Amino acid sequence: MRRTALLASAALLAGLLPWATAQAADDPPPVPVDRFEGEVPFASQPAEGIFTWGGDTDDPPALRLDARTDAPEGAKVLAGTYDISGYGGFTHDYAAAGPAHDWSAHRGIRFWWEGQDNGGKIAFEIKDGGANGEASELWTASFTDDFTGWKQIEIPFGDFTYRTDYQPVGGIDHVLGLTGMWGYAVTLPAGAKGRFAMDGVELYGRADQSLRAAVTTDEAVHPVKEGGTARIEITLATTGSAPVDQPVTVRYETGGGSADPGKDYTPVSGTLTFPAGTASGTTRAVEVPTRRDGAAEPAETIPLKLTVTGAKAPAENPQVVIDAHGLPYLDARLPVRKRVADLLGRMSVQEKAGQMSQAERGAVTAPGDIAGYALGSLLSGGGSTPTPNTPESWAKMIDAFQLRTRTTRYQIPLVYGVDAVHGHNNLSGATVMPHNIGIGATRDPRLAGRTGAVTAAEVRATGIPWDFAPCLCVSRDERWGRSYEAFGEDPALVESMETVVQGLQGRADGSDLDRGDKVLATAKHYLGDGGTGYGSSTTGTYTTDQGVTEVTREQLRDLHLAPFRTAVERGVGTVMPSYSSLDIAGDGKGAVKMHARGDMINGVLKDRLGFDGFVVSDWNAIDQLPGDYAARVRTAVGAGVDMMMVPYSYKEFTATLTDEVKAGRISEDRLDDAVSRILTQKFRLGLFEHPYADTSGAAAIGSAAHREVARRAAAESQVLLKNEGAVLPLRKSEKVYVAGSNADDVGNQSGGWTLTWQGSSGNVTRGTTILQGMREAGGDVTYSKDASAPTGGYDAGVVVVGETPYAEGVGDVGNGHDLQLSPADKAAVDKVCAAMKCAVLVVSGRPQLIGDRLDGIDALVASWLPGTEGGGVADVLYGKRPFTGQLPVTWPRSETQLPINVGDASYDPQFPYGWGLTTLTHTPKGGAAALRALTTAATAAERAGADRTGRELVNRARLLVQGKVGTGITEAVAKPFADADHLLLTGRYGKAVEKLAEAYRAA
């Protein structure tokens, strides 16, 4: 965004103002927007008013109307102070109930600003189209406070650009129409305390045709096969769709690219004329013929220079590209390794450095940078979405990015990545699965694979071939804000759920990756991020996330490395290192960031485990390494990181990497190794043959079939911890009183990483809440969120409580979070459970401390974060499906016990790992004799390799033991019970039943 000119005249205002702007003689009088004399209140939508906003509660500025003798206009100015750490500013919205304003007759908007000469950049946005000021497109410009005293800032409407990094709602038309304006917003500088004063916002000048008429091209890039003819469509567009009142001419001429005129193409030139009276939307075409020469060649470019008179010219001249042809790497019949070797041998150091770079799509404000820096990848961070947020918009956006790669010599496609960690969770209307902790609770590897397959199909159908999932961390402390991203606390459980890798990728040899329903998977976060110690983080206010994992080599191997070994065996295509540090006892290195641990990435992952995919860094992780930027690049690349996620610093990274290689501080062999790994996956994905989105599967996004998989996953994830008096399942004939903060909130039940990074409460996406599911199941339900409605006359109560969404270290306990229910939820539990028999459902990413209320609760369910299909929860509440889930993590009695995990020497939880009652019609009966028989049978099954039979026998013994234990869970019961579940998952069925028998005897 370029800074607008700051215009001034020699006149002084009242002898006080050093600067003012002259009005052209034929301009209409300015039209006031804000005089700040009190005519506009401090208020917010739907009323008209001025209001503040910010990223945190302490970020909004403080506003006031100050009486000033030096006010440029009137007697008062808008003044304020600010101290912004993230983002913040203020807005003037017009009343939502009134009509939008028409600014199209004016040249631009201007205002007085009291400069502090602090060098701060101030963004000024205007709001165009839509239903109201908070549902409109944002168009932005900016100026710099590098002056002192009052100055009038003029911004022509032609200087505003559409915001690509954020829009509050779905896009309207991406055209600054100016006929339906809803106000403006000011974003103040962050990082330092400041003050400001502003006055006299007004529309100025007369709109000239060059500001309301524009010439556009259908595409910025026009690829064509050698010998073909490119057709470039040139369109006249006007604000408000009015015909032009003056002629518009477009002079065009080819030349200046890498293609040779006369040899590779026939040069063209001429003039197109749109006469006065031409309607908006009128299109003319220019054709550029190319020629065949029979030689194998890289791609060649033919720029078409456009000179426009009478209208605004396109932001960039279009380019015709003669596609690369005849080169071995383009031959799909060749083995991938030969294609990689051929292409790698042709590339420059700069092109290789570009392939190792991944940028955030919102940071690429100059689309030409994709080719200019030869970028290998783009990503969408959490909440970084196109507008509108639809499958069609995703595909169109990614295709537009891919189109830019066509102008590079070898037309290497981008590989676009996204965090689809529980379904295509960035896409509105997609199927949102339970988070991994719920999938772990299902103990159903086949179902885990099906959830991965649904996710892959929905992701690939929007043009995205790469998913930053699954998370294979082994979560050892539920105070960690990412604990719900783990399948559980036992590496054996995590390994059993890695069927999700095949669901995402297909066959382990990568031969399915080019299918329209498969994506490249990412095993993350390597290595040990689930073991970081509480209080060890040095990132902001985080307590656990990105901290230090202290382990012995044996613990590292058995706890944290084991799932990655399995992922490599399953053919996972990429691995992402952890932000955290690893401190291995006895190695003398101390705590070292994983992105710097060459012994773990090169030595263990690539050499010992034989990982042949590529390693991608986490978001800006390179910035957490010591040394200057060049040193960080050397460290990460040297450690084995092949692609660097540098969302906003891709220019610096590519330049630095190139310089380091040319200086010999990073070897060309290492560069070639990294790039060959990246290219291998691009070839396997079929991107060279089909770089654009295959949307044939888009109709299935959010479909009934996909939601049925999510519904079953939600049902199987429900863990019945207590069920005194057989409260559950409910009968449809019962009158049920439903309360609690999470009963009717699809945002809360979906959790973090849903539409945005942190997620949010409320109706954030299409889905069914638990309450809606109960009603759809045919239940006789009355709902009172806070339990304020009378509680008399009901057969049972269901209180749905728990957490609100969070992600990563933001959700760490001690960083504004704890493991306690909110006061409102506690009050709802107390009131309902005192009045009737009750079931309490805990919707959360981790166990909640509920022991002080457990005696008053008849039934307790760990619902985890079930996703958008609350009907799955209703299925088990009403008995359509039985409760079968088991705890994937230990449920503690108190926070002082944390961390507490299966296998601990001292183990006395509220509920042990693996606990889960059932509502199956037929449950096992018997006593010690039955357990002895089950031990014999399970041992025989183990020896025979009859895994299915062995698992069924252990599960029968588990249910039998739970039936005797009831609520009498002691340490003597809990420890062998939890150990039994670990033994089951490692295939030691006889020993598992022996442990269950030990728990039975202790009960």
Automatic annotation (TrEMBL):
PROSITE patterns: GLYCOSYL_HYDROL_F3. Keywords: Calcium, Glycosidase, Hydrolase, Repeat, Signal. It comes from Streptomyces lucensis JCM 4490. It catalyses: Hydrolysis of terminal, non-reducing beta-D-glucosyl residues with release of beta-D-glucose. Residues 719-918 form the Glycoside hydrolase family 3 C-terminal domain. InterPro entries: CalX-like_sf (IPR038081), Calx_beta (IPR003644), CBM11 (IPR005087), Cellulose_Degrad_GH3 (IPR051915), Galactose-bd-like_sf (IPR008979), GH (IPR017853), Glyco_hydro_3_AS (IPR019800), Glyco_hydro_3_C (IPR002772). This is beta-glucosidase. Belongs to the glycosyl hydrolase 3 family. One of its GO terms (molecular function) is cellulase activity. One of its GO terms (biological process) is cellulose catabolic process. SUPFAM superfamilies: (Trans)glycosidases, Beta-D-glucan exohydrolase, C-terminal domain, CalX-like, Galactose-binding domain-like. Residues 1-24 form the signal peptide. Residues 349-680 form the Glycoside hydrolase family 3 N-terminal domain.
